[in-house]
Design goal:
126 residues; mainly alpha; 0% strand
Amino acid sequence: MTEPLLSTEIDVQALFEQCGEDPELFAEIVGMFRDGWKESYEKIVAAGASGVPVAVVHAAHYLKGTARSLYAPRVQAITAVMEVSARGGDIGPAVSELPALLAALESLDQVLSQPLPVLLGTKPTA
């Protein structure tokens, strides 16, 4: 057994346990995130461009929930800041978080591109 891949982007062990330690379910959930995060990000960008605070609130809240389900604290924290600022009617701070959010999402996607045994620090069985 090797050491698990340590990342500030996600708590892989917690997510794996939440999946009942089922590798197929883990892969399905990770795959759904990896397939959809760019669209979710684009929705936040569009919401910011619309200038409508409630649109930013909804888009940020959705992605925050996804991040929470994935045990992805960095994305969750950034989207929480975005949501709170937009709830106050000021989308400026939310829009200013877009580069940090994109970087966090890209980093999370890169981490999740690794095979589960690498993420958990186990060797694949033959």
